[in-house]
Amino acid sequence: MPEAKVAIATSFLNSYSRLPKAIQHKVESFMLKFQNDPANPGTKLEKIRQALDDKIYSARIDEAYRGIIAHAENAYLILWVDHHDEAYEWARRKKCQVNTITGSIQVYSVEEQTVSIPKVGIFNQVADKDLCKMGVPKDQLAYVKKFTSKDDFYLAKDSFAEDTFEYLSWLTQGYSVQEVFELIQESQDPMFTSVDTFDDALETSQTQKSFVVVDGQDELRQIMAAPLEKWRVFLHPTQRKLVKKKFNGPARVLGGAGTGKTVVAMHRAKFLAKHAEANERILFTTFTTNLAQDIQDNLRKICTVNELHHIDVVNLDAWVSNYLKEQGYNSKIVYGSEVDQLWDKAMDDAEEYVDYPRAFYKEEWIKVVEANEAFTLKEYARVSRTGRGTRLNRKARMKIWKIFEAYMNEMASTQQHDVNYAMYELKKILSTRLGASPYSHLIVDEGQDLSQNAYRLLRALMGPEHENDIFIVGDAHQRIYDNRASLSSCGINIRGRSSILKINYRTTEEIRQYAVALLNGLSFDDLDNNTIQDEECESLTHGKAPVIKEFKDETQEVDFITREIDKLHTTGIELKDICLVARTNKLAGDYQADLTKRGLKVLGLKSNQPDDRTKDGVRVATMHRVKGLEFEYMFVAAVNERVLPLYSAISDTDEVAKQDSLTAEKCLFYVALTRARQGAFVTSYGSKSEFLK
User: What's the rounded mean pLDDT across residues 8-26?
Assistant: First the structure.
């Protein structure tokens, strides 16, 4: 007899996460014993009287709590856990069936009484045969036809199988039946025909959206240790395709906030590492140190020790600095005020130049000279300045070059380089390199934040285009740093190897719509010089719209925030799942102190370390710091005039630069809001931000 399969459902993890800690420990002990031998009589599986489905059993956790398990053929499906009466009530009207049309195992509710179908319903115009193709079981057809509003349908989410709810949601968002069929086709396995057994259904991508077969007790312990981090276990079929696909060269994945780009990137790294040869290495890089550290921390949760051995996670600037040192270069990469000092010295040393402010020269250097590698007067005189607001004739460029020449001399004499120039220098080194690249594969997260120089360097690092060489994920809507690149102009050809993720798994539709509205009227690119059209995206969860509040002063604002956090905490939301963000480090520090004085436990997120999820406390951070993170509730505080947009962050060198910096501030607001899973609060005091008007 084949070995029994034990699979965990997303519904079980949801119910488990809401249990008291003491009961969670008991559930974990039960699960370890059950996974080891599900057929052991000691598990005490009992059929539930009056249950609609004779495959559904209860399992004793202790005197008061029960687990709900479906047993069919050789499979045991762990569906739910709750207090005795609540667990039985949940299970009584449930069915667990293999849908032979979609190939998924479905757990759904069946109405106890005959449902009267209204004359006007949101699904009434869809034929029964088409609903069945979307995964609706025949005994739910009448129930589906009863809904007269989207809100009522969303509230009934738990009555539907996960795949059914997803497909019906697309209909409520205005997609045609044919478009939904196309989406279903995209997510199904290429060779799928039909299945009729639970064993076979557990192997389909449709089932694996909501079930995972547990492979050993170590994996079970990992899953139970962080049940809300379901991204570690459950991938949507469209995500799984990208993770496992063989690409003949570079590939790019786009998607809005919450669509799972970083999830895909991490699982892609795991997949490549699992199949790597002994000496093969994978570079996983991104723009910020914070995100690299968070990714490293999360990879430890999904990768084996051997898989981690193949993956180097480091932000790109740090990798460049380390590699240059290994090659014997002693020059230092400098930022911020140290770069400004180089420019000030260059402007003092230049004999003749056009009287523009330092900011103008810095922007011209980064966006024109470095971006195009125009490091001679001849090259600079000819290069396109598209996207720059100040017009320059040839004579003006020649005078401006005096400053650039002095700046390069200053970098050379002090052995200090700005990071883009350091990348250019390293690219030249790599171009003379003999032998293969130290890396077989490269993964870039938050690709919209990297510069032209960065992508040219990465192309040089990876050598000639080859199978699965570069995998980039990004979203121009989240471009909060002043970098912009065109992949094709950097030698990275993604034509025919580009995908878009369309489902938001994190943020409610109401929060997503509010955040997207902030960016209305702005133009965004696809990281390859093309303007993104209004790509379709939908959240599968629904809730309340963000709460927007204005206050007379900061004291009133903090009092309100404290009250709301207390309310959330009393309803069972852990403090570590609540985050307050502000625009600057100074403001974040002030809020941390204010909340602490009011008796709240608070943990400030530092710029140089990951969020330690074992520690309790409301998280407080800057908007930049929370990029890549997510929380149940977000408080975006001090959305005030001159704070957001931050007055000092707005470039005034010309109108184009000003608009670019305003767009970056809006994108930062968008990023902060879309960290929220369930709810968001936006507060201001004094004069509110123009973004709220």
Answer: 91
